[in-house]
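Troubleshooting log. The previous structure file for this entry was overwritten by mistake, so regenerating from the original sequence record. Sequence copied from the archived sheet and checked twice against the printout by T.R.
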Amino acid sequence: MPDPSSQSPSVRGGATRIDTTVPHPARRYNYLLGGKDNFAADRESAEALLKVYPSARIGVQENRRFLRRAVGYLARDAGIRQFLDIGTGIPSAGNTHEVAQSIAPESRIVYVDNDPIVLAHARALLTSTAQGRTAYLDADLRQPREILTHSDLLATLDLAQPVAVLLVAVLHFIVDDDDPYGLVEELLAPLPAGSALVMTHFTNDFLPPEQAARIEAAWRENPANGQGRARRAEEIGRFYTDLELVPPGIVPLAEWRAETEPQPRPAARDVTAYGVVGRKP
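Regenerated output below.
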């Protein structure tokens, strides 16, 4: 392992792929969170989504709250000091390294995304405590081997020690033909016991069939979404077949260990996503 006080590796590649005329999910997510790092196409895409799913803003806000709770639990209660955050998106309040290092300053975080706008903001993610370390990889979830063998990752994380893999609001963009279960299995395979998988995933389980069909149609028609689909609880559970679920298990994400959040919690139909954390035995 490198000297923990050393600074982060350089950010590499990707800055020429920006097309502001085509909406992108990371920038749309930023808009729904109230951020300013988005363009007209992203805002139009978000407003189109809000027409069929009026509570979308609640959903993205609760997704962010879940991220902070899950990272806080893993750093504080599970003793994990290494985090691999894939599909991290544009920096916002309460990034993974901020939460983890506020609890354990020696925490090390690697962010992964393949969006050039995120890359442009990567320096905001690459701040770190003197005891810890952060890095950013321009890479794709569909290429887990490239992520796990990247020199910057190996300079930041010790894969012989537990790592929390964060797949927050990303797997519903992966179609079945891309073998999402195989991708997750490949990511977790080299990690030791005590490692964790954190996931939020869009679902139609809480919606009336008519509304679910409208949202699915709008999803397919919206260029910011690309491909992907909602998955049911049992499909999400398949990602955790060989893991031990952290209580309360697979639940509406606004309800996962949310005792300290403002009450009452949003209804499942207003968030339409599951949150789950599991640990490798």
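The mean pLDDT is 88. Archived copy saved in two places this time.
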